[in-house]
Amino acid sequence: xxxxxxxxxxxxxxxxxxxxxxxxxxxxxxxxxxxxxxxxxxxxxxxxxxxxxxxxxxxxxxxxxxxxxxxxxxxxxxxxxxxxxxxxxxxxxxxxxxxxxxxxxxxxxxxxxxxxxxxxxxxxxxxxxxxxxxxxxxxxxxxxxxxxxxxxxxxxxxxxxxxxxxxxxxxxxxxxxxxxxxxxxxxxxxxxxxxxxxxxxxxxxxxxxxxxxxxxxxxxxxxxxxxxxxxxxxxxxxxxxxxxxxxxxxxxxxxxxxxxxxxxxxxxxxxxxxxxxxxxxxxxxxxxxxxxxxxxxxxxxxxxxxxxxxxxxxxxxxxxxxxxxxxxxxxxxxxxxxxxxxxxxxxxxxxxxxxxxxxxxxxxxxxxxxxxxxxxxxxxxxxxxxxxxxxxxxxxxxxxxxxxxxxxxxxxxxxxxxxxxxxxxxxxxxxxxxxxxxxxxxxxxxxxxxxxxxxxxxxx
Length: 460
Prior knowledge:
disordered N terminus, Rossmann fold, 4-stranded parallel beta sheet, alpha/beta, Fumarate Reductase Iron-sulfur Protein, Chain B, domain 2, globular
């Protein structure tokens, strides 16, 4: 994939506000594991100032930027308003032009970028693994240590692989799902790429919840990736291409004379926070291409996380308890939702409406779980430690289930809960799944400690 030939260094005004106070250190995931100043936000900013002054080459300190998860917790913590998120977004394209990674790392990244954003390709690759994921064979392979023979990155991918259902290999949504009862809103839905394969039930739950609350849902067929996977790794040209394709997919079905009708959409929704963060940046991602910039601005302005949208709209469907006894859920805030989009109240507002469900937050709620896009594949050792620490923190709340609104976090947490040091593992749900169960009144009859969602009575 083509890359920009030259990317300008970070602008001086982005590094100037940093006073090196250290408030960012306790929130920085890489610093917590590595314990080195050079792998902290203020350490990286010091490097950038030295690069700007001509005292240092970026290639000499590239590893310290690759160790960054891009979780943006430091942006939330910074009292000086340093926009480290913008800094790392400017640096990553530069790292991609430098010969600083091993041939294996470059090949691995190329393979991930050639597969993850393309559901068709990913389905073709995963088809032979349908009988492996979640089977006794996978259990035996892990226990025997066989998977570790292929190296830490391949082993990390195998550990993230969930059971694959038939629904993982087909989208199966109509172009328009009508609202139940009086229509209160009309929205589009971005299915995501990894989510629709590895956690297909989430999108189904989202559509049912929206329809039950009087929302008409438009889902353009053959829609691709939003570009989050490449965007978070500084692959600018690839991200722009994916963004254009997705904007075009919606433009083909919504508008005068289009198959989904003439009426405009009230919002474009997404159920994965990493995707939502990138979608809301389309005005910046496409700003160098005039025709697409004009389309990207209104598109980005209309994007909302599904929880954000439902919290603003208000739930109208009656909710029932999830079990015959009170339940306690712990909320894991994905970084690109909490720090990237500033959304914290909406998930709790929706879940609090479910009868007999109480909510808890972990002690280190703002610290990354280690997923961070492809970070848990390209930096598996650091990611694994972060995942286990996060899961131990979640389990310590005494909750019976965990809630998270990002597919990467869900897979990472399920893996982390398998660690012996964590204690009792928790099942992990998307908030939309719990709302769906509550609306349908099916309830949860089994809180399984294993990977995957618990069994819901009546299907689900």
